[in-house]
Prior knowledge:
Low-confidence stretches: 1-7
Mean pLDDT: 89
Structural class: mainly beta
Helix content: under 10%
Number of helices: 1
Radius of gyration: 19 Å
Strand content: over 45%
Amino acid sequence: MTSACGGKGEQGGSQPRVVDWPALRTLGIAQVETDRARTWVLTLVPTESGGNLFSVDPDTLLVQRVPIDSWLQLIVTGGGQLWALSGDGSQLLFIDETTHDVRTQNLALPCDVTAEPTGVVAAGTLWLSCNGRISVYEPTGGARRDVSAPRSSHLLASRDGVWVVADSALVGIGGAVKGRRISVPGGEDARLWQSSGDDAWAVELAAQERVLIHVDLGSGAVTRFTIPTGSDQIDDLAVGAHELWVVLSEEPVLLRLDRAQPTRILERFDLRSEEPADDSVLSVNAGVSYAWIEMYGDHKTKLLLLQD
Length: 308
């Protein structure tokens, strides 16, 4: 069952819908990831079975638990693949997105939460950063392949390969981009790096968090856009196929920006009526033609869907 929320799109566009998931109040949300038309959610707290991975249908908002009865700390999606890292960091799980069959692979060196694991799927393989060291894993199994790369906990996937964020540069480490280096002046102070297609985006800290950095990974061109946020700052960022989604830090407001012209606000959503508490934190994750909004507070956690 779904319900319409009172969040208002000021340009008269779509209204966000609330996922009917009462258990979120106690489970909480650890991570939301999208891949094509699929959405996967990791909860902070496991269910009674011990598992914490769920799927959410963006059309029906139906929530289903994935039958894996162990706690997972990280999921990585892309290209029709779903990977997970076990809670203790000792195993990688390759999960069939349709049947939910699981193939498990033991890691030679554990990669627990303190190792700050992150990953991307590119060229049909998983690229996993653990303690800043990067390894590649095949979905068919087999030994890992270690990659010579600058130590980094931030990986970006593009159409042509894999990049790492290293100080004030993006460095190509895999695929056709291997060996390339794009200098990003001031990039050492950027955060929330994300990529989509041949573009990378980040928020610039030195500009009072009101400026987005855009890097064309094909040409290497770097452009900055000052977003009309008033006196507010950017707290979170998600990159969609045709838009950018920006969460503001002071007010519970979500902006939908034109990806081709980021200073152009397509819609502004005031989520005040959906805010669980004054201390709520908002986060956003973009899908193919939609965005998920996560709201965290001491009294309630909500998951909302906005569609183009």
